[in-house]
Amino acid sequence: MALKALLLGMKYLFKRPYTMLVPEKEPPMTTEKTRGRHLLDMSKCVGCRMCQMVCPADAIKMYKVEGDFKQNPKKIFPGIDFNRCTFCALCVEVCPTGALSMTDITGWYMTTTDTRTNLRSPYDLAAELAKNEKPDFRVTITKQTFLYQTKKRG
Ligand code: SF4
Ligand code: SF4
């Protein structure tokens, strides 16, 4: 048994590693199903906290913000701690208004040695939408596409 394990280990000793360094400049490879950074449409969020309640990683906290948000009388919006997020997309699935969606942005953008920089406020999550109603990067996961993919898998 031990010899078998040793031989197996020897076999991989001279092979190239399966892992690779995350490139700092080039975006990493993404696929049709890559789930990356979230977007928040603050004009749709009603502050129901369902995304926070469903999050299995306790990555979402609600923040009170200033501003005129008639659909959200308490003015509370989600922020996400990407140090905790597992990108399971449950928060997107449960959101009743489609305020949360996901992009295929991953890789170096999402990694850091300073954990404080991976805490994203509601304004951070909304920034790309505020700049441009149709951001350059592809939005891969919305409630609809998530349900579609789940149905296809099932
Ligand atoms: S993707 Fe999953 S882990 Fe990340 S914030 Fe949403 S529910 Fe939480
Ligand atoms: S993002 Fe969606 S689920 Fe979360 S508080 Fe806003 S409306 Fe509710």
Q: How would you describe the overall organization of this protein?
A:
The relative contact order is 0.21. The longest helix has 12 residues, at 2-13. The chain has helices at residues 2-13, 50-54, 90-94, 122-131, 143-153, and strands at residues 38-40, 60-64, 76-81, 100-103, 119-120, 139-141. It has a three-stranded antiparallel beta sheet with strand order 1-4-6. A three-stranded antiparallel beta sheet has the order 2-3-5. With 154 residues, it is α+β, with helices and mostly antiparallel strands. It has one domain: 2-Layer Sandwich (Alpha-Beta Plaits), CATH 3.30.70. Bound molecules: iron/sulfur cluster (SF4) (2 copies). Residues 45-51, 78, 94-95, 97, 99-100 line the site of one iron/sulfur cluster.
What is the CATH domain class? Alpha Beta
**Total domain units:** 1
Low-confidence stretches: none
| Class by SSE composition | alpha+beta
Fold-level CATH name: Alpha-Beta Plaits
Instruction: State the shape.
Output: elongated
Strand content: 5-15%
Encode the helix/strand succession as letters: HEHEEHEEHEH
Query: How many runs of DSSP E, i.e. beta strands?
Result: 6
Quickly give the CATH architecture. 2-Layer Sandwich
Alpha-carbon distance between the two ends: 39 Å
Helix count from the secondary structure assignment:
5
Give a short account of the largest sheet.
3 strands, antiparallel
Strand arrangement across the biggest beta sheet: 1-4-6
Bound molecules: iron/sulfur cluster
Mean pLDDT: 80
Roughly how many Å is the radius of gyration?
19 Å
Helicity range: 25-40%
